[in-house]
Amino acid sequence: MNLKQTILPIKILVIIITALPLFATAQATLNANGPGQTYELINSILAPGYTAVEAPDQCASHPSFGRHIAEVFDATLNKYVFEFYIHVPTNFPVVNTTADNDRCLNYDRQRVEIKTYEASPANLKGTIGETVNYKWRFRLPIGFQPSPNFTHIHQVKAVGGDEGDPLFTLTVRAGSPNILQLLHVIDSTTPSTILGYINLATIAGVWVEATEVVKVGANGTYSMTLKRVSDDSVLLNYSSANILTIRPSNTFIRPKWGIYRSLNSYSYLRDDSIRIDGISIQEGVLPVHLKNFSATNNSNKILLKWNVENEINLGNYEVEYSSNNIDFKNIGNVKAANKTVYNLEYNNNQQKQFYRLKLIDKDGEFSYSNIISLFINNKIEISLYPNPAKDFIIISTNKISSKSTLIISDAIGIVVKKIPLTNTLTTISTSDFLNGIYHIQLEENNQIISNHSFVITR
Q1: Full set of structural domains in the chain with CATH
Q2: What's the pTM value of the predicted model, to 2 decimals?
Q3: In degrees, to the nearest 5, what angle opens at C-alpha 228 toward C-alphas 253 and 311?
Q4: For residue 15, what pLDDT is reported?
């Protein structure tokens, strides 16, 4: 990719202006479900019967490490997620079997990615006139080390004709400071344009939700929103009502996720990883905006509440429950009544609970909301606020125990405070904390029974 770049005006927001529309009918969702058979799971969703994974181990590169994508349990999300691994070569020049490379085809770069492509179902490929919504969550580890050349973590690529450079790219670039950029490339002869960027330090070690909406065409539309999952703060927001989203010689567009990085400045790099969760690909438009969806527990009576706007032609909402985040069942139906707030109560005493909404229009087309989780600890439950915090944080518990202790550690695990829990409401001063991410654990009888995270920003 030509590194000469043109900078367009960008919008970096700190509040959410509006929710993006939900999409209907043609939908695929990829979620981790536990260790083992990871490549097989990915292939079954993104390219059934074919291979949607591009990993070094598939071409006998770095075979001693094994598979370069795994399913790991993430304490922040309280669920299994995908983790992608990439490794710096120990010897140069890079050859087939000694280091991660690019599919044993290119040795000046490395790739561990998943994709849709020619073999994928038609609803996972964007063609002219279609509107496609890509949604996923990702977390880059603290200290993630990008190249000054390129380190892509997401691409929307074209297939057929001029397909060398991605149309849209989220790329991490080394600099002072390191940044995450959103790029657009018109064609292979034109320099990339920077549509937006953020300081990489603002998302290091933090889960981020990405929503990308593409109307495919020479005069298409495009939007990208990045939100911090912990508090829904908007970190980057870009949109254009007239932008090229497919080239004249292309037949369709497709997404990729993972790590694809240059080795030309390998001294910058380290063995690294990225976590990715909840990939969703949807086509077609359902005329309703789901603003939020929440679940709260009151003595095992679960209140499910959702806020909507622009409800047009919607028939009803189905509320679905799962105990394992895989198998869902219908637990209630709520008829659409042109309201903005709906709710449903459900008696449930299971420790782990997962819920989603199925939004069905009057023509029978439907879409699913994001999955929300609720974890009930029959011993002690805690919540904390405000988050992000400045000079203090308040810890609220449902009860207390003489053998309970709060342990606060920084992002690299160093304990900064240890406080006996003596009240159901505890205020902790953070005035001497540096800006950054902190983890708080509730310890009872020398066992950790609850994990939470918060951010200090001033």
Answers
A1: 6-285 (2.60.120.200), 289-375 (2.60.40.2060), 382-456 (2.60.40.10)
A2: 0.62
A3: 70
A4: 24
